[in-house]
Amino acid sequence: MGRIKYCIDPKAPKVNALIPVGDLLAVDDTGAIRLQLRRDIGQWALPVGAQDIGETAAQCAIREDGDRR
Questions:
Q1: Cα(53)–Cα(35) distance, rounded to whole angstroms?
Q2: CB of 21 within 8 A of CB of 45?
Q3: pTM
Q4: What is the mean pLDDT of the segment spanning 4-30?
Q5: Most buried of the four, 30, 31, 53, 65, by CB within 10 Å?
């Protein structure tokens, strides 16, 4: 069974973990916005991913954008 996501559900279980994530608006040399094709939903989106322990938000954004090159 996969993870269940809740959105404003009073019956949702109490939060037991916090996973920081970052997304970014990356622009290439021509001024075009860089997007990623998400494997899970098959739609184009801004690059986003989980932030590693000890990593700054800026480092996370650079890594996430670099993973898609």
A1: 25
A2: no
A3: 0.51
A4: 82
A5: 65
